[in-house]
Amino acid sequence: MSWLVVARKDFEDSIRSRWLVGLTALFVLLLTAFAYIVRPEPGETASANAVLQLSGDLFIGTLVPLIALVIAYNAITGERKSGSLKLLLSLPHSRADVVFGKVAGRSAALSTAIIVGFILPAVILAVGPFTLEMGAYLGYTLLVALLASVFVAIAVGWSAAAPSQRIALGGAIGLYFLFVPFWGAIQFRLQLALASLPDWFPLGAETAGNLLWLSNPSSAYQGLSGAVLSGQFLSGEAADLQLAAISMLLFWLLAAPLVGLLLFERRDL
Amino acid sequence: MPAIKLSNVTKRYGDITAVRDIDLTVESGEIYGFLGPNGAGKSTTINMLLDFVRPTEGTVEVLGQSVADAGVSIRERTGVLPEGFDVYSRLSGRKHIEFAIDSKKAADDPDEILSRVGLSEAADRNAGGYSKGMRQRLALGMALVDEPELLILDEPSSGLDPGGAKEMRDIVTAEADRGATVFFSSHVLGQVEAVCDRVGILHEGELVVEDSMEGLRTSADSEETLILTVSGATDDDLDAVRALEGVSGAAIDGTVVTVACESATKTTVISTLGEAGIEILDIETDSTSLEELFLSYTEGEGTVGETAPTAEQTEPDKTAKPPEGAQ
């Protein structure tokens, strides 16, 4: 389990970064601010889920992918440039151990920031006029951590594939714009095309449209978060769609680093 | 079983050939010095041993296995000090050693290794604050973890002061005494001379000499340097001298002509200059040092006479040369 050793080192290295402390504080601040915005009238109580719902609509789906891409785009190219990758690969680790170890270590570090950054405000909410549904709150926090991990995996995969730091950065910015601001427009275009599918196409227009929607990890997350907050996680009509969303997130988690690895394997350091 | 075996290895980057058709074998248990000036292709060769870089042609075997197929299992048995590496600046020296221990599934005591490489005091400081020499010591410590069968050290003395270079050599010797094979590179002969059993000299990507240390000394002993004070000679006049058999180099600096040649060729050199109409005012001879011999292999077109000053100007590690390593 050589990748675990790499992951642990990368985690220990990442949590010592000031960035991560800053991110944790940012999550605490944002959630507390949203709690203030949706605070109930004096004497009444509101559900903490409302805070999460609002934060989800406003910043999680856009900010978390950005943060993940920023902290991970340099995971491999940065080490290649500085030379610490030579130290790493002088030890008995394969390049696959390095790529998957980096995904695991950096995801774990960012997830730590997310979990701490969400749990601290939960205490504030519980003390204040909010009712806390522990299951939904924890589930939602873990879902955000999963979303972050998926984007970390995409960024590390890209970092392994990129021949230089500049291309790694450019690619990370491109991926962000593709998945976050531009996705709606792209999806709309493709959806129009789907409306007139030829007969031989194996999927119906609705299924194809759903797949298209889910293929963006941000949308998959949004679908799931709604279900978690409304207490319909993996139940109700949309259970199949939710399973598909989870599968899609797991697919990205593995496929992106794997593709990056294939290119990284052939490259001279 | 040889510890390292390179067969017909060539590495090209686009049009540039970094390493050309190298055949090199390091036997198990020996200390092999891989010498050559900066840019000769030493690191490229070592990077191919480590599978950091893939050869364009040829095969590389380490500890009897192909590096292309068995990189991880080779590195489980090898300790590596790479060139151009960097440390993890946020992690302490101790963490680095612990990481190497975990990676090799070894049972070493980190403190013991840290003290061996002289980092006990700095063990708990972040490696980002380490000097070049301390980083070099740290990487050596990581290489020593788990008593590897083979140590591959790329320019291990760079960044070390003379005392540090001496400690480095002592560690190399101690590891060899334990039974390890050591392969290390340097651009300074003095680093290699005192400890190596065998030496390979790389020049412009080609292995120009491979000999035992003893063999090299014998060739150095049979060489002499002729120092002539002349009048009216130009560099062009020396071409006839350079063409002589037994002359490995000739150079001119003002009125001083320096010729490195076999002892038996001295008189021919002098008469050749006389025939060219050059007046010889004074003749001195000097025996060639191993250093001069090394430089004559690696400086191309016979500029032996200029080697001594050049060496001082261009080799930052010259100061690291130990007194006992000098002739």
Beta-strand share of residues of chain B: 25-35%
Extended strand count of chain A: 2
Calculate the terminal CA-CA distance of chain B, rounded to whole Å: 34 Å
Identify low-pLDDT runs of chain B: 301-327
**Strand order of the biggest β-sheet of chain B:** 6-7-8-3-9-10
Number of H- or I-type helical stretches of chain B:
12
Oligomer: heterodimer
Radius of gyration of chain B: 22 Å
- What Rg of chain A is obtained from the alpha carbons, in whole angstroms? 20 Å
Q: Overall pLDDT of chain B, averaged? A: 85
What structural category arises from helix and sheet content of chain A? mainly alpha
The major β-sheet of chain B equals: 6 strands, mixed
Please describe the biggest sheet of chain A, giving its number of strands, its sense, and whether it closes into a barrel. 2 strands, parallel
Number of strands of chain B: 14
Give a quick precis of the structure.
With 269 residues, chain A is mainly alpha-helical. Chain A is built from twelve helices and two strands. In chain A, helix 3 packs antiparallel against helix 6 and helix 9 (183-195) runs antiparallel to helix 10 (205-214).
Question: Could you explain the architecture of this structure?
Answer:
The complex is a heterodimer of chains A (269) and B (327). Chain A is built from twelve helices and two strands; from the N terminus they run ααβααααβαααααα. Chain A has a two-stranded parallel ribbon. In chain A, helix 3 runs antiparallel to helix 6 (95-127), helix 3 (48-72) packs antiparallel against helix 11 and helix 11 (217-229) runs antiparallel to helix 12 (239-265). The two termini of chain A are 23 Å apart. Chain A is mainly alpha-helical and 269 residues long. The mean pLDDT of chain A is 89. Chain B is an alpha/beta fold. In chain B, 34% of the residues lie in helices and 29% in strands. Chain B has twelve helices and 14 strands. In chain B, the strands form three sheets. Chain B has a six-stranded mixed sheet, sandwiched between helices. In chain B, strands 2-1-4-5 form a four-stranded antiparallel sheet. In chain B, strands 12-13-11-14 form a four-stranded antiparallel sheet. In chain B, strand 1 and strand 2 (16-26) form a beta hairpin. Residues 301-327 of chain B have low confidence and may be disordered. Classes of the chains: A mainly alpha (269), B alpha/beta (327). The A-B interface holds A 2, 5-6, 8-9, 12-13, 16-17, 82-84, 86-87, 89-94, 266, 268-269 and B 47, 50-54, 71-73, 75-76, 80-88, 90-91, 95-96, 99-100, 102-104, 139, 142-143.
